[in-house]
């Protein structure tokens, strides 16, 4: 039986001698395939796609704590690469360029069964393509789903306490819940998009194999979307009572109650979080990646994530645009996106930052 994600995170937290998340590298000055001295590379090479217009650009990363594998999404084409903590070279795991209807891919996460959830960004916007996908650890397609919003831009994804996957929507202040065989109301026939309803009515789209995508929460009562990428990074609070969600356009953090879906703003102690992208939590410590600002902000959350203390803001490598990151084996893995390049040039890398010992 696979160990639980909660246990894995607790084990990582125990690596640190203190409760403070700190960074000794911040992705600066690492060289591809260099060794940390403990048998693990200091960075990981990704395969570029020579057919991609504008070169290869990357965004999301998901990790499987038990196997030591990580998965990286390519924006330009939708390919998914897979790597291992002890190998310097990642390889293409899932093809893109229309495979399973996928032409682009964004956030990724992995559940306790090793299933991989992929957010499609604008893949399904204005067309009939899927908005998201679920794959088995062996790469078998389990679900390719539309969501109940024709304007959805699914950005990032996290696993909830119930084992379901929760996706942020950058175009509307909604959270989409995806699960296999979940109870549903208001669902239409297989493959048909449900009409937009209030969250309490169970807005649901359903696939033929029983996987469902449901509009779980609507934060429009408080959250105002503006031009650009709105809701993005998402993580669970320490006590697992809420999701913490970043809104990069306004520099705000939002708290979505796990029990009710109710939204409230998190007091972030005056921290500048504009262009907030990926979120990484370890215990009460939250790392906020500010992509184009080339900075990582360290906040200390209270256990229920109603407020946070600003601990520090530190520059990252000035030659890289980091988007998201995940903890794997006590290290922070950061995605170097190449978003600042009109035509991306390799090497394409996942860069590591050391965690406290």
Main β-sheet: number of strands, strand sense, barrel status? 5 strands, antiparallel
Structural class: mainly beta
Average pLDDT rating: 85
Strand tally? 25
- If helices are DSSP runs of H or I spanning 4 or more residues, what is the number of helices? 1
Describe what you observe in this structure.
This protein is mainly β. 3% of the residues lie in helices and 39% in strands. The chain is built from one helix and 25 strands. It has one helix at residues 5-13, and strands at residues 43-46, 58-64, 69-74, 80-84, 91-94, 108-110, 116-119, 132-135, 141-145, 154-159, 165-169, 174-180, 203-206, 211-218, 231-236, 242-247, 252-257, 263-265, 276-282, 285-290, 295-301, 308-315, 322-328, 331-336, 348-354. The strands form six sheets. The chain has a five-stranded antiparallel beta sheet, with no helix packed on it. It has a four-stranded antiparallel beta sheet with strand order 1-25-24-23, with no helix packed on it. The chain is globular. The protein starts with a helix and ends with a strand.
């Amino acid at each position: 039986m696979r160990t639980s994600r909660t246990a894995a995170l607790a084990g990582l937290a125990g690596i640190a001698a203190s409760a403070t998340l700190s960074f000794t590298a911040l992705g600066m000055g690492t060289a591809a395939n260099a060794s940390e001295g403990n048998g693990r590379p200091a960075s990981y090479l990704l395969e570029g796609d020579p057919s991609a217009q504008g070169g290869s650009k990357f965004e999301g990363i998901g990790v499987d704590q038990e196997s030591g594998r990580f998965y990286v999404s390519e924006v330009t084409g939708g390919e998914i690469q897979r790597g291992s903590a002890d190998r310097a070279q990642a390889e293409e795991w899932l093809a893109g360029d229309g495979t399973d209807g996928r032409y682009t891919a964004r956030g990724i996460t992995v559940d306790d069964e090793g299933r991989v959830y992929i957010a499609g960004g604008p893949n399904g916007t204005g067309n009939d393509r899927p908005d998201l996908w679920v794959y088995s650890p062996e790469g078998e397609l389990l679900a390719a789903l539309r969501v109940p919003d024709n304007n959805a831009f699914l950005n990032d994804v996290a696993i909830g306490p119930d084992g379901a996957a929760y996706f942020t929507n950058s175009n509307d202040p909604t959270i989409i819940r995806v699960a296999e065989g979940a109870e549903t109301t208001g669902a239409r026939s297989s493959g048909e998009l449900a009409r937009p309803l209030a969250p309490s009515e169970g807005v649901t789209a359903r696939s033929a194999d029983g996987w469902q995508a449901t509009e779980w929460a609507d934060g429009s009562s408080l959250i105002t979307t503006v031009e650009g990428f709105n809701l993005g990074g998402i993580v669970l609070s320490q006590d697992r009572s809420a999701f913490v969600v970043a809104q990069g356009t306004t520099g705000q953090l939002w708290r979505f109650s796990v029990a009710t879906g109710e939204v409230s703003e998190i007091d972030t102690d005056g921290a500048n979080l504009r262009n907030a992208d990926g979120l990484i939590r370890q215990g009460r410590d939250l790392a906020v990646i500010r992509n184009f600002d080339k900075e990582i902000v360290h906040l200390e959350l209270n256990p229920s994530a109603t407020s946070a203390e600003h601990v520090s803001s530190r520059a990252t490598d000035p030659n890289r645009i980091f988007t998201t990151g995940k903890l794997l084996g006590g290290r922070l893995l950061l995605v170097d996106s190449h978003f600042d390049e009109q035509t991306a040039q390799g090497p394409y890398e996942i860069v590591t930052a050391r965690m406290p010992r």
